[in-house]
Design a protein that fits this description.
Order of helices and strands: HEEEEEEEEEHEEEHEHHHH
Strand content: 5-15%
Distance between the termini: 171 Å
GO cellular component, one term: plasma membrane
Organism: Perca flavescens
Structural class: alpha/beta
Radius of gyration: 42 Å
Keywords: Leucine-rich repeat, Membrane, Repeat, Signal, Transmembrane, Transmembrane helix
CATH architecture of one domain: Alpha-Beta Horseshoe
Strand order of the largest sheet: 1-2-3-5-7-9-10-11-12-13
Protein name: LRRCT domain-containing protein
InterPro entries: Cys-rich_flank_reg_C (IPR000483), Leu-rich_rpt (IPR001611), Leu-rich_rpt_typical-subtyp (IPR003591), LRR_dom_sf (IPR032675), LRRNT (IPR000372), Wnt_signaling_inhibitor (IPR052286)
CATH superfamily of one domain: Ribonuclease Inhibitor
Number of helices: 7
CATH topology of one domain: Leucine-rich repeat, LRR (right-handed beta-alpha superhelix)
Shape: elongated
Length: 367
């Protein structure tokens, strides 16, 4: 009887375990894991066991998540919601996950991110994966607000790669004082400015590879120098090695210890410099000065050539005048005689009009 009773109790416990697992999900109490992978779910399933530490809800059709989705899951430390087509994350969605340390929202379509979307009690969140998560580059404005308002002071790693970002709002990371790893690779960033990395005093890794950086201006270099502890990745950017690249090339030579892929950085444009090492591009300083001197010399030569041409035209004009000097002299004399006759006629009429006696004589003669 005792053995039978033990079997009944075991079956009851086993049945309760299976009963607590949501439909279309797989649960493992031993591994503290629940997986709801590619089950065509339209929302976060209810009835997730309280023992769950690792929760994987991926490859489904979940459009929105809010605070009601994760109630009673105090033990969840790793949450993956990747590849669900999520477009909206409401404020305090994860506030009930008191132990949450890693959140994966990669491969979604986040268009609306509410200001306190990533707020977690006790600031427990350490890693946030938003790779391929933003619907378009304009969503970064919502994200910037959320990063400021979501109490992420203890966040260590942030992945924003593969999001097509063309710019980063000013001070976007200023409230992430404990951030150590920042992934910005495979975007479309064309410049670093506006105090982008302000407040990242603890940053140890910064990946800016596979962007659209053609050079790094003085402001961008100051931004990178504000991260003295960070190791940088700058590979696969279309660096344009013209005279404007000099300050960056010189900075790169001084900072080889921090730029992990410095020796692999090459020029992409112009064609004559393609695949030239960026470290060697610093020698363009002298070439650029020579180029400037050549430009000045070319300009001076143009002025001299223009003067010669104008002088030659003047000589031809004078030669033509010389050949036609007689005809010109005759035309001048004729013009002078004509002017003299006109003047004498005006003078005669003036004398008649001014002397009454001459006027009367002229009148009698006309009669």
């Amino acid at each position: 009887m005792l053995g039978l009773a033990q079997r009944v109790v075991f079956c009851a416990l086993l049945g309760s375990v299976y009963a607590s697992c949501p439909q279309r999900c797989e649960c493992s109490e031993a591994a503290h894991t629940v997986k709801c992978v590619s089950r065509d779910l339209r929302s976060v399933p209810t009835g997730i066991p309280g023992y769950t530490r690792n929760l994987f809800i991926t490859g489904n059709q979940i459009r929105r998540i809010g605070p009601e989705c994760f109630k009673g899951l105090d033990n969840v430390t790793n949450l993956s919601l990747s590849n669900n087509r999520i477009s909206e994350v409401e404020s305090h969605t994860f506030a009930g996950l008191r132990s949450l340390r890693s959140l994966d929202l990669s491969n979604n379509q986040l268009a609306v991110v509410h200001p306190e979307a990533f707020t977690v009690q006790n600031q427990s969140l350490r890693d946030l994966n938003l790779s391929r998560a933003l619907y378009n580059h304009s969503s970064v404005t919502d994200l910037a607000t959320s990063l400021r308002w979501s109490s992420l002071g203890m966040l260590r790693g942030l992945d924003l790669s593969h999001n097509g970002l063309i710019y980063l709002p000013s001070h976007i990371f200023s409230h992430l004082g404990s951030l150590q790893r920042l992934q910005l690779s495979n975007n479309s960033l064309v410049a670093i400015h506006n105090s982008t990395f302000s407040g990242l005093d603890a940053l140890l890794e910064l990946d800016l590879s596979l962007n659209s950086l053609k050079t790094m201006g003085e402001e961008g270099l100051r931004e990178l120098d504000s991260l003295p502890r960070a190791h940088l990745l700058l590979g696969e950017n279309p660096f344009t090695c013209t005279c404007g690249i000099e300050p960056f090339a010189l900075w790169l030579n001084r900072s080889q210890g921090r730029v992990s892929d410095a020796r692999g950085l090459v020029c992409a444009f112009p064609a004559s410099m393609r695949n030239t090492s960026m470290l060697a591009a610093g020698t363009l300083t002298l070439g650029c000065h020579r180029s400037g001197a050549g430009a000045d010399l070319a300009l001076q030569t143009s002025y001299v050539f223009l003067g010669i041409v104008l002088g030659f035209v003047g000589l031809i004009f004078l030669f033509v005048l010389y050949l036609n000097r007689k005809g010109i002299k005759k035309r001048i004399n004729d013009l002078r005689d004509a002017c003299r006759e006109v003047w004498e006629g005006y003078h005669y009429r003036f004398e008649i009009d001014s002397d009454p006696r001459l006027s009367q004589v002229c009148t009698s003669a006309d009669a």
